[in-house]
UniProtKB/TrEMBL annotation, chain A:
Membrane-crossing segments per the record: 64-87, 108-129
Matches recorded under NCBIfam families: PRK08965.1-2, PRK08965.1-4
InterPro entries per record: Cation_antiport_E (IPR002758)
This protein's record includes keyword Kinase: no
Family indicated by similarity: Belongs to the CPA3 antiporters (TC 2.A.63) subunit E family.
Keywords: Cell membrane, Membrane, Transmembrane, Transmembrane helix
Name used for this protein in its record: Multicomponent K+:H+ antiporter subunit E
Gene source species: Pseudochelatococcus lubricantis
A Pfam family annotated for this UniProt entry: MNHE
The organism's place on the tree of life at top rank: Bacteria
Automatic annotation (TrEMBL), chain B:
A Pfam match: PhaG_MnhG_YufB
Keyword Lyase: no
Region described as Disordered: 110-134
Alphabetic keyword roster: Membrane, Transmembrane, Transmembrane helix
Transmembrane segments: 14-40, 52-72, 78-99
The keyword Lipid metabolism is annotated on this UniProt entry: no
Name this protein carries in UniProt: Multicomponent K+:H+ antiporter subunit G
């Protein structure tokens, strides 16, 4: 039964996401839309199997929620910080620069999530990750305290993402 | 689905004010990002500025849209969330490609102030901010 379900629904979360997207787009939960959305959801997941990615194991829903709150707060804070830098006169704009962080995470889904978190937070951009050495290169708009950025990435984001994905 | 009854006169003042505030804040942040695109000096600095528009800027406008149309239609209108989700997961791809190609070109041209191929943690920083990771 388990194997049959795995065959029918190779990516259950992806299918659920497609169904929810379809219902939101149509703004309706009528039976017809649910059936059509479910067909799309199954088809989408089957299409995904041709890419041959492993099914992500996602755990700790509370951690996901908490990480979402943390990232939201950080996005708001760095929006304000970057806006301040933009309006500051050119001579007092701080020091932008590249910095390297050594990551312990190897899960591709976790790394993808970290890339999205880092890049969608204004002021930091994911530049390069070497899976051989585990060193991540990011560009920071205000590189005053590098140790603080390392602490943010390692302890605020990476630790929680590793709990979720590994 | 043509909503003739969706006339904006029907919007109660409190909702109109909230919507106006959200749309104004969103537009202001997006404008700030565009100003940054002009004011900041180097490519790597400039690429940070438009993220204001793609995060909170869009977020405020979407919340304004949700408030406005939820009140006008008298039912919850939350499909704007989809815009936020897709924007959040797709814009980083574009930003990353831009920065990586700029970095590639700077390395090929041998320009200053770009890290070498295999950076080590703490190397670009001041000695007092050295990172103890290993």
């Amino acid at each position: 039964m388990r194997r049959f379900m795995a065959h029918l629904l190779p990516y259950p979360l992806l299918s659920l996401a497609i169904l929810i997207m379809w219902l939101l787009l149509n703004q309706s939960v009528s039976p017809g839309q649910v059936v059509f959305g479910s067909l799309l959801a199954l088809g989408g997941a089957w299409g995904m199997t041709t890419l041959g990615q492993e099914t992500p194991r996602i755990r700790r829903p509370l951690t996901i929620l908490w990480l979402g709150v943390i990232v939201f707060v950080d996005i708001v804070r760095s929006n304000i910080a970057v806006a301040k830098i933009i309006f500051r006169p050119g001579s007092r704009r701080g020091t932008p620069g590249f910095m390297a962080v050594k990551l312990d995470m190897r899960n591709p889904y976790g790394l993808a999530a970290l890339a999205i978190v880092i890049t969608s937070t204004p002021g930091t951009i994911w530049t390069n990750f070497s899976s051989a050495s585990g060193i991540l290169l990011i560009h920071v708009l205000d590189l005053q305290d590098e140790a603080e950025w390392v602490d943010t990435i390692k302890n605020r984001y990476e630790r929680r993402l590793m709990e979720i994905f590994e | 689905m043509i909503d003739i009854e969706l006339a904006f006169e029907n919007l109660p003042p409190w909702a109109a004010l909230l919507t106006a505030f959200c749309v104004f804040m969103g537009a202001f942040l997006t404008l700030t990002g565009s100003v940054g695109l002009l004011r900041l000096k180097t490519f790597y600095e400039r690429v940070h500025a438009p993220t204001l528009g793609s995060t909170l800027g869009t977020g405020f406008i979407l919340v304004g849209s949700m408030i406005c149309f939820s009140v006008l239609r008298g039912r919850l209108s939350v499909h704007e969330i989809l815009i936020a989700v897709f924007l959040t997961i797709t814009t980083p791809v574009g930003f990353m490609l831009l920065v990586r190609s700029a970095l590639y070109r700077d390395r090929v041209e041998g320009n200053d102030n770009v890290p070498e191929g295999n950076p080590t943690p703490g190397k670009q920083s001041a000695p007092d901010a050295a990172v103890q990771q290993d």
